[in-house]
Amino acid sequence: MQQNPPISLTIDGKEIVVPAGTTVFDAARMNNIPIPTLCHQQNETPVAACRLCVVDTGARAYSAACIRPVEPGLKVITDSPAIQNVRKGVIELLMADHPTPCVRQQHSGDCELEGFAKNFDATESRYPKRQKARGQDDSSLSILVDHAACILCDRCIRACAEVRHNFVIARQGKGYETTIAFDLNDSMGGSSCVACGECMVSCPTGALTNKKVVGQHLDTGFSMDVQDLLALPVFKGVSGTFLELNKGAVVKRSFKKGEIIFREGDFGSTAYYILSGKVDIFISSPRGHVNTEQEPSGWLNLLKNKLVPRSRHQREGENLSQGYISIDAPVDLAYDNPISQLVPGDLFGEMTCMSFYPRSATVRAAEDCVVLEMLRNVLDVLQKNKTFRAQLDQKYRERALSTHIRSVPIFSSLSEEFIEHLRPRVELLRFAPGEAILRQGDAADAFYLVRIGFVKVTEAYPGGELVLAYLSKGSYFGEIGLLGGGVRTASCIALDHVEVVRIAAQDFNEMLAQFPEIDSSLRKASEARQQENQQRFKQVSSVPVDQFLTQGLMEAQSLLVLDLDRCTRCDQCVKACADSHGGVTRLIRDGLQFDKYLVATSCRQCRDPLCMVGCPVGAIRRKGSLEIIIEDWCIGCGACSQGCPYGNINMQEFMVEGRAGIDETHKKAQVVRKATSCNLCHDFPEPSCVYACPHDAAHRVSPTKFFAEMLTQDGGNKD
Amino acid sequence: MAGLTVVAIAIYVVAQQRHFTGAFGGTGGGLFFGVCGFALIVFHNLLSLRKRFPVWRIGKSQTWMRAHLWFGLLTIPVVIFHTGFVLGGRLSALTFWLCMIVIASGFVGATLQHFMPRLMTQRVPMETIYDQIDRVQGQLLAEADGLIKDVEATAAKSGVLLFKNEEKGTAVATASTSLEPFEELRSVYQQRLRPFLAKRGDYGNPLYQRSNAKGLFFRLRKLIPKEVHIVLDDLENICEEKRDLDRQSRMHRVLHGWLLVHVPLAYGLLILVIVHAISAIRYL
């Protein structure tokens, strides 16, 4: 094989010999002659985008050294006042379109462009700055994209394609509007980017920077070397660059048998992956309602029971058929005995990690175990890793699919054979916050079960969008379109990081054919949902919307209003409320005023019940009549209370009987915290506050009817 | 109720015809009215028990209240018919007049409760929960103190005032050649405004009258540079809110104060009626 002969040339008066095909830039570098550059890196194909490496080769124009091949006898001058002047001009032009200091310069002070600008005394550009900002893309958990700082050097594009072979990044747009883009101009978080970090490492400015998880620090005493991490099967395929940049974002912890890893209701920001050993996962909060009443005993209590005849101790609309409680783990807990076990390879705490929801259950080491604790940027990268995803999906299909499907009461009668049939056929899909899972008007082609996160169901109406429901783990959607005309009647949007189980229309229809009772139940539930939606839609369409929007009354379905012209401020309503609920009132006789009516601080049964978003165990929900129901397995984390914009959900302590067998600390009768909100005194024929008002001033009303009629001078129409 | 009153009158007329002279209370008709009156008084007293246990499902409070009012009216003819228009001994007379006072105080209360809520809604736009008035007042005082402290601090520092213009969200700087106006503001605040804000229900204070307060702030605005008028506006609003709280306190006391007469006297009446009944039965 014949080799090209070496070529001799002169650079800055120095005679040098290099192999043929070498570029001037490389020839100079090999001989320790520095040539400045921004767009060129040794491991990437040169593109001569920045023109900073221009050199004088005696030609009519200066050449870009990074792409200019050497020639025999070539005389190159890399530094002269004229060349410096050209380079300074290039830097000035780039600085005119670059924020100073950029994110990178602020954090680490090593923005290459700003470094050159300082050296060339070009920090102040003579050229006008860009008028319209190019914006940022904050969608990725690991990398912040600041288009304003991008100089379009293409280093990230070549790193993604040539170094990592991912081919996610490219340019989009023309001329002055050109930017880098991900896939088909998707957001970085929504693209197929695997967050390997190569682009970030390649970027010479602050256009692509590493996002540390702000305010979150894991105990570095347990941190692992990158090589040790990469040796674990779970990190197979994960970029070492990324792990190096995020050192300390994943730690290895050991727990002795019986040690608590975390407790339900705790706030956290990490997820756990079991390397070895087993853990118990359970809900230790005893079930029970805040207003649970003891059976009367003794003549005094019997008399009291006669005077205060609660019709039932069970909440109307409660999920009596509930078989499983959904938690933030690959398993669901049995309602009657809410404890399960996780094994090596299981991941738990995903929702807390990704969306900062409170812990849904208590986890205790069942035997000596080793777990990896990780921050959300690491979990995000793992979630995008095909090996890891495949492993998780496989585990889900094997262990959780059955209980997950059966956790929906309607599907509790599905046979094991059919679930076995479904096991390989279902799809597990992930959606980023704000992403549409399905849109109103689309063709209905599948049925969905929520596995992780919260889904907002909305229906468009003239002038707005009506929120029909928030669905959490254990809920389903998509059946109305499949059972009806084959068209989606509502849109379903991921509120946070959502995972759904997709059952194709064909399998769904097969299931209905095989299980007529499921078909019948599903049709009934579907009709009920449609009727409720229709009813709400009518209400919204028929009221003077503008009048109420300013006070948020449009969002309410049931308000406790006090006619201030009649109310003598005797507080009998408050006293009655407190007497009905163990001495703690669930209403405050204060709030906003609409005309002569005071809208008391008490649950409004909102159309858009924000309180439902974030419950880690799905204990707050709507019943058929759209009232808010808090189920008895509430763990008292307070997420709903924080979510209510009107301060109408309170955390209340009450005594419950202990429950042996799960948590040693919960054997005896104890005081526990549970969320409470006005339950309309469901166990009485009429809310106590209304019943106790001596002046006919307190009313529970539908605002849309009550105020609409009042405004049209027809007088109020109470519910 | 009118029917019951007519029936009572008819019974009285018939019974009275049989007993032309003497005390009526001890007769059959008199005893009938006595028992009815006693039952009515017991019933009226039960309302307070009903209010103590509002959750008891023994009829809506509103029904009880209506019955209390209407049967209260009926009590007047029943008691009068029981006396036969003759008051008798001291105990009987005392019981009768006490009953009339209780009923009269009830009338006053019913009238107040009919008109006062509307009046309160109109005249106290910044109404708060009655039990929270002290707390809200404390917050207002602290806010006013803070405003004056800011003025003093910045004025004393350099003679240059810097205030945040809340409407525009910008800072306004003004040069002051003399600190005298600010001394005047501080003096007015310490001697007149602060005492008013600090004392609950200071009805005798001239600032309780809105016109006086307006006059004061008008004078202050003339004295103080324009840029500081934001502070004066805030102080005036604080005074307005304090006035509302005082007005609410006063109206609340009027609205519920009559109960201090009505309720104890009603209990006293019940005791007297029982004593009266026992003595009457004993000497029958």
**What are the segments of chain B in which pLDDT stays under 50 over at least 5 consecutive residues?**
160-177
Q: Give a quick account of the main beta sheet of chain B: strands, pairing sense, barrel closure.
A: 2 strands, antiparallel
Structural class of the secondary elements of chain B?
mainly alpha
Structural class of chain A: alpha+beta
Counting DSSP H or I runs of 4 or more residues, the number of helices of chain A is: 21
Individual helix count of chain B: 9
- Percent of residues of chain A in helical segments? 25-40%
Q: Provide the domain count of chain B.
A: 2
The helix content of chain B is over 70%
Number of E-state strands of chain B = 2
Query: End-to-end span of chain B in angstroms?
Result: 31 Å
Notable characteristics:
heterodimer, A: 719 residues, alpha+beta, four-stranded antiparallel beta sheet, 21 helices, 21% strand, elongated, disordered C terminus, B: 284 residues, mainly alpha, 2 domains, two-stranded antiparallel sheet, 9 helices, 4% strand
